[in-house]
Amino acid sequence: MIQRRTVLKAGAALTGALGGAGLLVPAVAGSAHATDLDPTTIPQFAQAMPVPEVLQPVCDLGTTSYYDISVEEADAEILPGRTTRVYTFNGSFPGPVIKAVSGRRVVVRQTNQLSVPTSIHLHGAHVPQSSDGSPGDLIAPQGGSKIYTYPNEQPHANLWFHDHAHHQESETVYRGLTATYLLTDDVEQRLNLPSGRYDVPISLRDARFDDSGQLVYEMVDFKSRNVQLANGKAWPYFEVEARKYRFRLFNTSNMRFYTLQLSDGSSFQQIGTDGGLLEKPLDVTSVSLSPGERADIVIDFSRYTAGTKLILTNTGPIFPGNPVDQVGRILQFRVTGPATDTSVVPSALRTLPALGSATVNRSFVLSIDETGATGDMYINGKTYDMDRIDTEIEYGATEIWTVHNGDAYTPHNFHIHLVQFRVLERNGQPVTSGPEYGLKDTVALMPGDTVKLQATFTGYEGTYVYHCHVFDHAAMGMMGNFRVSRSTTSSSTLRRQGHRRR
Question: Which InterPro entries does the annotation name (predicted)?
Answer without folding.
Answer: Cu-oxidase-like_N, Cu-oxidase_2nd, Cu-oxidase_C, Cu-oxidase_fam, Cu_oxidase_CS, Cu_oxidase_Cu_BS, Cupredoxin, TAT_signal
